[in-house]
Automatic annotation (TrEMBL):
Biological role: Acts on leucine, isoleucine and valine.
Matches recorded under Pfam families: Aminotran_4
Protein name: Branched-chain-amino-acid aminotransferase
Keywords: Amino-acid biosynthesis, Aminotransferase, Branched-chain amino acid biosynthesis, Pyridoxal phosphate, Transferase
Protein EC: 2.6.1.42
Protein family (similarity comment): Belongs to the class-IV pyridoxal-phosphate-dependent aminotransferase family.
Species of origin: Octadecabacter antarcticus 307
Gene from which the chain derives: ilvE
Reaction(s) catalysed (UniProt annotation): L-valine + 2-oxoglutarate = 3-methyl-2-oxobutanoate + L-glutamate; L-isoleucine + 2-oxoglutarate = (S)-3-methyl-2-oxopentanoate + L-glutamate; L-leucine + 2-oxoglutarate = 4-methyl-2-oxopentanoate + L-glutamate
């Protein structure tokens, strides 16, 4: 992704894509002092843009830094990046991190916080699984307790276990991994939330040890508006067998049906295909 034409918004200016670099002694590279957002722009409008910007500021606070921009400035930065690259349908990656500076130890409060926004065209995160249904592995890594990590932050450090889990899944021919939380409840995938259907009702894990995704919240609202019961609760792995349909939600994943988790198979049924179509309509409305 580094060798492309285009512009990246970085610390207030638009720089050439290939020149958007950081110093090797950036604190973030050594100690994961970085937070980010993943957003999608549809027909020239970023879906729930302000909510994403707000979450990014919140994520920064969770890991002890203030991003030196206001919501309005972040909104303008995202628009500037889209305009500079002439994109109306794009994935938007905003990132903020502790740079290099006075500190090289664990503490970093004297190092400046930087921010950048890159945008590019990105199709469905799971490729043809979007229609066929994704196959998920079950990760050996568990989502940490909120006492061990700030679960609600979209912070780079939390993705170490996600990357390892996804690598292991891909090595087995799966699209992604479903992760348990520290108690052994079903949590989510490595970068998307999870939902199940049983007897026409929707069940989804309580987001008390993982990111309560903006897509997740949107989809829960859409289902309830249609009169479908959505139950947020702790879900045990033994319950998988009793579920009929399953899907993932996320900005990148949108609504992606799941066809298999481990040995358990799910139908790509009407509820999930309708929901995926409704979501597509909503984000483009
Ligand atoms: N969980 C994790 C770990 C994620 O990385 C994402 C993607 N941001 C999500 C859930 C879904 O969040 P959202 O719907 O806000 O994109």
């Amino acid at each position: 992704y580094d060798d492309r034409d285009g512009k990246i918004w970085m610390d207030g200016t638009l720089v050439d894509w290939r020149a958007a670099k950081v110093h090797i002694l950036s604190h973030a590279l050594h100690y994961a002092s970085s937070v980010f957002e993943g957003e999608r722009c549809y027909n020239g409008k970023i879906f729930k843009s302000r909510q994403h910007s707000e979450r990014m500021l919140r994520s920064g606070k969770f890991i002890d830094f203030d991003i030196p921009y206001t919501i309005d400035e972040i909104e303008a930065a995202k628009q500037a990046a889209l305009d500079a690259n002439g994109l109306k349908d794009a994935y938007v990656r905003a990132v903020a991190w502790r740079g290099a500076g006075e500190d090289m130890g664990v503490a970093s409060s004297r190092n400046p916080v930087h921010m950048a926004v890159a945008v590019w065209e990105w199709g469905n995160y799971y490729g043809d699984a979007k229609t066929k249904g994704a196959k998920l592995d079950i990760a050996k890594w568990k989502r940490p307790s909120p006492e061990c990590a700030p679960s609600q932050a979209k912070a780079a450090g939390l993705y170490m276990i996600a990357t390892m889990s996804k690598h292991a899944a891909e090595a087995k021919g799966c699209s992604d991994a479903m992760m348990y939380d520290y108690r052994g409840y079903i949590a989510e995938a490595t970068g998307a939330n999870i939902f199940f259907v049983k007897n026409g009702e929707v069940h989804t894990p309580t987001p008390d040890a993982f990111l309560n995704g903006i897509t997740r919240q949107t989809v829960i609202g859409m289902l309830r508006d249609k009169g479908i019961t959505v139950i947020e609760r702790h879900i045990m792995p033994e319950e998988l067998d009793g579920f009929e349909q399953c899907w993932l939600t996320g900005t990148a994943a949108e609504v992606t049906p799941v066809g298999q988790i481990g040995e358990k198979k799910f139908e790509v049924g009407k509820l999930v295909t309708d929901l995926a179509a409704d979501y597509e309509k909503l984000v483009r409305a």
